[in-house]
């Protein structure tokens, strides 16, 4: 299988690349700023014998992203699975959110998903097969105080998933969504140790998640199944 994963120099995306590449799939990915981390990922996986290519491309820039995906397809073959993982978060009171904050959140978290899907879809439609997994957030389901623009953008990804699953099902393409809870990555660097302790206390499974928890779920969703249009929350029970 050929997989393309957006936003994969660090965090969940990086773990997705490692997981799929080590399972023997050909993996293409993109990132925004972390060049050295991305090249180090490519080098280390190539040394393991994995088939992996990476491109610096901003998901909010359709031209850049389409060029990266086209190059990945040239090198690895048509994309069978797209994972829309790239995303940003920001904690701010609603009254402090600027027009620029709002636009950047939606340009990356929502338009980035639109851009990537439009890039891979013509080939998936031709082949009448393919899978798309969108990474939303539990906050897109239940909403987070001081993260209204983030929550709204992740709720948009959920709506997009459900609608697109209906539209693409007849073409043999499944569209699903993972809504992670708090996962141990840089995106949560703003949380204090006591914030993390409070989250753990409110989580029935008594821990925060790891990128591997999300990668294993994505691997499951990448397999043959009767599943489409689903929003699968992986949050240790936090939002129960
Ligand atoms: P992270 O550690 O901050 O990593 C984000 C990744 O996305 C980085 O590789 C970054 O590239 C890339 N990226 C950001 N903006 C991009 C853009 N415009 N174009 C291309 N790549 C871009 O975040 P994470 O925790 O792994 O989050 C991954 C996804 O999971 C996000 O959609 C996030 O909203 C979602 N999520 C995370 C959590 C959590 O607790 N961690 C919970 C729920 C949902 P650079 O390194 O180059 O900046």
Describe what is shown at a glance:
By secondary structure, the protein is an alpha/beta fold. It has 8 helices and 7 strands, in the order E-H-E-H-E-H-E-H-E-H-H-E-H-H-E.
Count the DSSP helices.
8
Taking pLDDT < 50 over at least 5 consecutive residues as the criterion, the unreliable ranges are none
Helix content, binned percent = 40-55%
Give the C-alpha Rg: 17 Å
The coarse overall form would be globular
**Proportion of strand residues:** 15-25%
Number of strand segments: 7
Q: Biggest β-sheet: count, sense, barrel?
A: 7 strands, parallel
Query: Which molecules other than protein and nucleic acid are bound?
Result: NADP nicotinamide-adenine-dinucleotide phosphate
Distance, first to last CA = 35 Å
